[in-house]
Design a protein that fits this description.
Among the domains are: 108-256 and 263-278, no CATH class; 283-444. It contains one helix and 27 strands. The protein has one helix at residues 2-19; strands spanning 24-38, 49-60, 64-73, 85-92, 95-102, 116-123, 128-138, 148-158, 162-171, 187-199, 203-215, 242-255, 259-268, 284-293, 299-309, 319-334, 337-351, 361-378, 381-396, 406-418, 424-434, 444-447, 449-453, 463-474, 477-489, 494-506, 514-526. The two termini are 44 Å apart. By secondary structure, the chain is mostly beta strands. A hairpin with a 2-residue loop joins β4 and β5. The longest helix is centred in the first third of the chain and has 18 residues, at 2-19.
Length: 528
């Protein structure tokens, strides 16, 4: 019976396999070597040479695909954090799996821009989303004193309403917890809600509320905190070094074909912490309004205003307030000319009762930038000319402050020329003038010149090269740099690159200069 069933199903399965579309296989292998040398021993890089190997491939079927990535770098043993990379990512129309190295993103206050070495799974049928991730976000290091940190996260919901949970904890199994160790093992829990949706095609809403518990030292004794709900004690135990705080943000955006209005507000408590973020400025309350318009043809204009202050719970001796105003204008009056104008002003005030003048801040910084650009063709050559004019004004309103007021004017010129033969010539020049009241005459303290050329390709277009020479005189000395690069294609699938850099710095009379050299080699080949 089984034999007859096999004889019946085998031809059907073979016919189905023959009619099934063939999978698409793609892959690329690359390798590279780099050598660096500096005559000044204090500027030498360790290690002086390095190499890397990488492989990226994908296998695609009609209903799903699998991606594989491998990266090996010889500098991994010299760095505190992981440089080697491995990732395997099966995916289909409504889901994805992460294995190895990956960077999940949940929300602005919980998990974003953090690399994990672990695993994760994500489902996104229609407007629903479920994400579960876990792995190591930091590895142990006895030189920079860091523990292995493991992070786990969950996101559930959709654009209209979502829930995020994150927990991170330092693993002390490899490094024994002692009072003599300068780094304290920590733990973090973040719970958040948010939403992101649109109404009537013109209005867009975006808001998030998150609360965090941050234990700064796992060696401290446990404690009961009434700010933490009882159900959280099952997987998080607060201690005397724990802090509880919250963060919230909200945004409203009105879109129209002629203008856009954007309003945002945020408040981050001084104790709010998330180990799922690469950077977060806490103890901050911020308001921001922005307006952009295209009412004038071929012209874009924008105006922004923002205000920020710290010391939300009045636990500091001083309060710092920032207020900024920005304006931008971009216009193309004719086809060959475009002009960009930008203004940014920022006022900073730090004051407090009984605060001495040496700790007070009362400054105003203004920057105005004008950049016209001209593109034209003359004598059969394509040419591009850009002018740069920047004025910076810094005012310190505290007379006894050691930081004086200053005014700086920067002028620049960039010019490029493309010949009929495949050779490009470009040059740039800039000069800085100090217009501060303490100086009677403007003094240029920086200049830069550069020349770049790309000769015609040789060997039937397989060999391409480029040369760059730059000269930068300044008050500190003169720097001459030379860079050359070669690119040779064995076939359409194989490419070899060679580049070299030479830099010579001369500080002036009576001082010793230095030189640096760098050589880079790389080879890549498409496997399929």
């Amino acid at each position: 019976m089984s034999r007859s069933v096999f004889l019946f199903l085998f031809p059907l399965s073979l016919l189905w396999a023959l009619r099934m579309p063939k999978p698409n296989l793609a892959g690329e292998f690359s390798s590279g070597f780099e050598f660096y040398h500096n005559s000044d021993t204090s500027r030498k890089r360790k290690p002086s040479s390095s190499y890397h190997l990488s492989l990226n491939s994908s296998l695609s079927f009609p209903l799903f695909s699998i991606g594989l990535g491998l990266f090996y770098n010889s500098e991994d043993r010299f760095t505190a954090q992981r440089v080697h990379q491995f990732n395997l990512n099966p995916s289909w129309r409504w889901g994805r799996v992460y294995l190895g190295d990956f960077s999940p993103s949940f929300s602005e206050y919980t998990l974003s821009n953090i690399s994990l070495y672990g695993a994760g799974i994500e489902f996104f049928p229609k407007r629903f989303r479920f994400s579960l991730v876990g792995g190591r976000s930091r590895r142990a290091d006895t030189i920079e004193w860091s523990y292995n940190r493991y992070l786990y996260g969950l996101k559930l919901g959709g654009d209209f309403l979502f829930l995020t949970i994150l927990k991170a904890k330092d693993d002390t199994s490899l490094i024994e917890m002692k009072d003599t160790i300068p780094l304290s093992p920590q733990e973090n829990l973040v719970l958040g809600f948010g939403s992101n949706f649109s109404l009537f095609r013109y209005l867009a809403f975006d808001w998030e509320v998150a609360g965090s518990v941050h234990t700064r030292d796992l060696r401290s004794d446990t404690i009961y905190l009434k700010e933490i709900p009882d159900f959280l004690y099952s997987f998080y135990q607060p201690r005397y070094s724990s802090r509880v705080d919250y963060a919230l943000r909200g945004g409203l955006k009105f879109n129209h074909k002629l203008f856009t209005i954007d309003f945002g507000v945020s408040q981050i408590g001084p104790g709010f912490t998330s180990f799922g973020l690469s950077y977060l400025k806490n103890d901050s309350r911020r308001f921001k309004v922005g307006i952009a318009t295209k009412v004038i043809p071929k012209t874009e204009m924008g105006l922004t205003w923002e205000k920020e202050n710290d010391n939300l719970v009045n636990d500091k001796l001083a309060t710092t307030r920032n207020q900024g105003l920005g304006f931008s204008l971009r216009t193309t009056p004719i086809k060959l000319v475009n002009v960009s104008l930008n203004y940014n002003g920022k006022a900073t005030v730090r004051e407090g009762e009984g605060l001495s003048d040496s700790f007070k801040i009362n400054t105003l910084t203004q920057t105005l930038n004008l950049t016209p650009n001209f593109r034209y063709s003359a004598f059969g050559f394509n040419q591009n000319l850009s002018l740069i004019l920047t004025y910076q004004d810094y005012k310190n309103r505290i007379p006894t402050s050691p930081s004086p007021s200053s005014r700086i004017l920067t002028t620049g010129l960039n010019y490029s020329l493309t010949l009929k033969i495949p050779i490009t010539f470009s040059t740039s020049f800039s000069r800085v003038f100090n217009l501060s009241p303490s100086d009677s005459q403007p003094k240029p303290n920086y200049q830069s010149y550069s020349l770049t050329g790309s000769p015609p390709a040789l060997l039937n277009g397989r060999l391409k090269s480029s040369l760059t020479l730059s000269y930068q005189p300044s008050a500190l000395g003169r720097n001459i740099s030379f860079r050359s690069g070669f690119n040779y294609s064995f076939t359409k699938q194989e490419i070899f690159n060679l580049s070299g850099d030479l830099s010579i710095f001369s500080p002036g009379k009576g001082k010793k200069g230095f030189s640096s050299e760098k050589i880079s080699l790389s080879y890549s080949r498409k496997l399929f």
